[in-house]
Design goal:
- The complex is a heterodimer of chains A (851) and B (225).
- Chain A is α+β, with helices and mostly antiparallel strands and 851 residues long.
- Among the domains of chain A are: 202 residues, no CATH class; 182 residues, no CATH class; 168 residues, no CATH class.
- Chain A has 31 helices and 20 strands.
- In chain A, the strands form three sheets. Chain A has a nine-stranded mixed β-sheet, sandwiched between helices.
- In chain A, helix 10 runs antiparallel to helix 12 and helix 16 packs across helix 17.
- Chain B has one domain: P-loop containing nucleotide triphosphate hydrolases (Rossmann fold, 3-Layer(aba) Sandwich).
- In chain B, strands 6-7-8-3-9-10 form a six-stranded mixed β-sheet, sandwiched between helices. Chain B has a four-stranded antiparallel β-sheet with strand order 2-1-4-5.
- Chain B starts with a strand and ends with a strand.
- Classes of the chains: A alpha+beta (851), B alpha/beta (225).
- Chains A and B meet through helix 18, helix 27 and helix 31 of A and helix 2 and helix 3 of B.
Chain lengths: 851, 225
Amino acid sequence: MPRFLLFYRLMVRPLFREPLRTLLTILAIALGVAVVLAIDLASDAATGSFRSSMETLAGENELEVVTSGGVPEYVVGTLATLAYSIRVSPRIEDYAVITDTKKSLPLMGLDLIAEGGAYAQSALQKTAESQTQSASEQVFNRLGDADGIWVGSSVGYRTSDRVELLINDRVRTYTVRGVYPDSNGNESAIVMDLAAAQHALGRYGRVDRILLKVPETPSLGDWQQRLRTVLPAGVEVRLRGTATNENRRMLAAFRWNLRLLSCISLIVGAFLIYNTISVSVVRRRPEIGIARSLGASRGVILSAFLGEAACLGLAGALIGLPLGRLMATGAVRLMAATVESLYVSSRPGIIELNGASVLLALAIGVGVAVASSYSPAREASQVSPVEAMARGRREYDVRVHQARDLWLALVLGLAAAAASRAPAVAGKPLLGYLAAILLVAASALAMPAFVDALTSVSSNLLGKVFGVEAMLASRTLRASLRRTSVLVGALSTAIAMMTAVGIMVGSFRQTVVLWMSDQLPADLYLRPAGFAAADRHPTISSGVAEEVAKLPGVAAVERLRAYEISYEDMPATLASADLNVRRSHRNSDFFSGRPSEQVLAELRDSNAVIVSEPFTYKHHLKAGDSLTLSLGATQASFRIADVYYDYSSERGSILMDRQTMLRFLPDPAPSNVAIYVSPDAPLEIVRAEIEKATAGHRVLLFSNRDLRAEAMRIFDRTFAITYALEAVAIIVAVMGIAGALLALVIDRRRELGLLRFLGAATWQVRKLILMEASLLGLLANLAGLALGFVLSLILIYVVNKQSFGWTIRFHWPVEILFGALAVVYGATVLAGLYPAQVAVRLNPIEVVHED
Amino acid sequence: MPILSFEDVSKDYLTDGQPVHALKGLSLNVKRGEFVALVGRSGCGKSTLLNLAGAMDFPTTGKVLLDGVSTSSLKDNGLTQLRRERVGFIFQSFQLLHTLTVFENVELPLLLAGKHNPREAARERLAWVELEGLGDRHPHQLSGGQMQRVAVARALIHSPSLLLADEPTGNLDTTTGNVILELLRRLTREQNTATIVATHSLEAASLANTLVRLRDGKIEEITRR
């Protein structure tokens, strides 16, 4: 108890003497904790929800039968007639949009006669006629209705309501036959009879999945073995939820990168805690001496300062918890949109702030605070009592080991270079991240030498150009080298990450812009109005493309069909295109450097494919290799003719000739259509003609420019969250600068008072502090830009490549980058305003005479 | 005409909510070339008098005239200007900026006043205090006596008409302190400034032309020699 009392009196109470600075430090930690927590919660909610209603409503079935392009319907019969006690549940699975609300919901076609008891029962409960036997019969009689649907209660419809649904490019009207309970909204879906779904989606003669409930013995592995023997070659039986696990694996890199990005604020916060505790140690040096001379051991001093940091960390974590929960709400929306456009259909799930999250926040807040304060706390414990009481704080302040730290920085830099050249570990760029962390550490170690060199060279010049205040500011920063280096280190780390991510995103954006100019050569693009995502490929009714092709002014149409498939336990996109059209219009970019005509000619009507760069990276394939695909009821081997650059999705794509695909999957409906307009035909007139011809279908017609703009909008939205994370890191750093300048003003109040005695006007004192802020900003910008450039190379050529497999061409986004740096610089100078005001308000008589 | 006049000056402070009467109806005239020693117990008002004389503070009642200008009639900018042109300060603990060299410390008041090329003036003032050749050193490379000489040079850099020294020998040994006092007296005479030294030192008192004894914020006795 006495120890706690002493701790409170000597360590905690002083924190209240500078409430603003203490608050800034706590807020810096709170923001760091909040960001990490928000990303953790949001990524769980956003990427966890891809499990979607399809899985939630899959019931207790253990196995599923699948194949690319759909399982032939006769397989249902094969399985149902086996001499085993297996429950067979065929399913059609897609999405429908409720036209009134524009809400996209999973659409499931079930064999309602066989397994629809539950739905019918719920319908009974919800209808007024439920008391009568005849009503029950009526519901059962309607199970097979082509226009009947069952909806989750969260959708908000009642029995007998009429609902218009957009499915692919058609709007159809359905009647709600029943409502099933759906308390949390995660199971909301539209259920209809299998045959009705096949009709609506044009998937005659096949189903998307067959779910199987098998007896407990033998094992599931044995059941898989048994069932494989009766299934056609291309049809696979696997554990239910395999797709979920595949998606989870696919999203791992995305989640990892976001998580690491969210740690930047925490790293910046750690610098600031280090600085706060260092200042605390410097200020209390005489007190440390007194405490040591009165019998306090080194361990007591060490724990006292670690305890101080832990208090700040705990306070930060407690504020960070609700803040993180709040931020997660915004983050989940951004992340879900990204997941949907790049990976897999997703619906934001529920953000759960549970005990684990609270523990995580506390561990992060207290852990980072204690870890980052260890060095100054240890230094405090090493102080000899005599020295502490005899010598001023100046000697302590300047005690930095520039040469030793520079050597260490060099060693870390070399280690970073080595780590950056290492391959991915378990598919993750772990050593790439390590290289980035080592570089940040090397930069922090080199910072005192950098600050010392620059301030010593520039102080006289600054004095000549900006006046004596600039010279004094420069000298002051140099005199407090340790403190200055930490502040510049914190801000430069935030700036470096902003620069690195800025260059990476800018390079990526430029790469995509250039790529699109090759990949989108058509004048107009047609796609179904139904909701599309990386794994959703709604189709246009067959015949529409042919009608458009006949229109005057249309030179050619190219039909592209895409299927969601699974290749070697990873999701992928299988696509086909009219390569005869493509060959004559495109100049695609291939790894081999061969002309596109030559590569595409190899694909025409043959078992050859081209694959996207991310696909080769995920599956370790190259041109000339073979891959085996399950297509409908068959399995076929394809030769990889070449690899093409592709930035539309991280899933990985396989492209074959349309005629080849139709041999295996004879559904002619395209997913979208590229339309080439004759050079002599006016585009707007042709467009109007196409709109007239497709009036009966819900399709969207994009001009080339619109499509590019839409693609860039999605691109920018994808990276919005990274910008948000960068902004928080910068805010944390700027808050740290404000707090540290405040501390600097308080520690140097005597000097500032003296200047007033020596004839300095108040504006000169203000200018002095603002010049210090400005110099800190300038040094941090210079160091951050240099470090950021090197980090951007690691992000582009190591982390991105090993995470996603994309080749990004380096590009300096000069305007955005320097705009952002100018904003950060401005913010740093503004952060000096309040400390400057405090400096101006100091009473020179009081501060000069206090000792 | 006196360079400094106190006309029935009183100064009150509030300390922890309690009024403190630091100076009570004090009148004093100091002329150029005059070396004044302020003596009295701690808390008798010596430092308050220096602060009012140096235009660092305003009197509660009465007038402080510095070179004929009433400090109460000026705002912050005016007071700053007055200090820059007319007043030099010397402190007990030297108050040198350790980040600056000796030259830069001495030049500081001129630079703050926006004057260019102050190096020659600094060199000259360092010669006055017999520190030629030490201009490029930093304060921590000097002895206490040398540091106080630098402070004296700095106080004289802009040729002030009034030099105010608060316990200038308080942090020095007796011999060094006497050297500093002798220096101040010499410079007062040579530069025709008025110098007021607040001190507990008998040596300082014995060197002064005018000895002002303060007690409880009032002048108890003025002895002119």
